[in-house]
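Look over this one:
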Amino acid sequence: YYYRFFIRFHKKFITNRWDITKPITFYISSNTPEEYKQYIREGVLAWNEVFGKEALKVENGSNGSVAGDPLKNIIQWMGNDGFAFAVANRHAHPHTGEILSAFVRFGSGYAVSSREDAKRMLNLAEKKVKNIVQGMVGLAGFEKESGVEETYPEGMLQLLHLIASGQVPDKDIIRLTGLSIRNTIMHEVGHNLGLRHNFMGSVYPHVNELPSSSIMDYLLFEDDILMQHPGKYDYAAISWLMV
């Protein structure tokens, strides 16, 4: 009993969490391509299933909306095809732990709309790796480790190779990349909500209908694309966090 009381009493000091008595509004930056805005919106709003109410809302941002604005929660599209990573951050009150604002920076390297796009991005990644390897210092006689994963996450590389190979029909490319964007946004907004990475979510797949019990897990593309909703762990974590 005393342990539970201690945790409940001190939770606000050891965790970051939102005041969800009012909706949390995320703004999509104005430079985001129209064909991907709906997937971003769906990625944010998927968390409302966990809260059981409209805790999160999404609106289009104005031209002046940029990530880091202390008064707004921004999902910032970064116009750089060589940047296929997404990062999230949040600003919390130093004494209470209440999250006051958050943002996601999202690289346009995820926006693959054609087979030619995929090939071009793979070429960009290969060039970056060559530059990285040329600048590396290593021991004589030892092979320098290299890999495109230095510039692109493994799941994104799988998607690029799949599209570049022609295995995905042209009409399905934007839909497939859109689902990948949706999943990534769900993951990053999870960070905005106070969750960390969960690298154990797929350890016991036999107890789950999905490849992992958490959208905060790191999965290969073919598994990640199946995670269209937060998992059971995410429900439990948010439930604990918000009590």
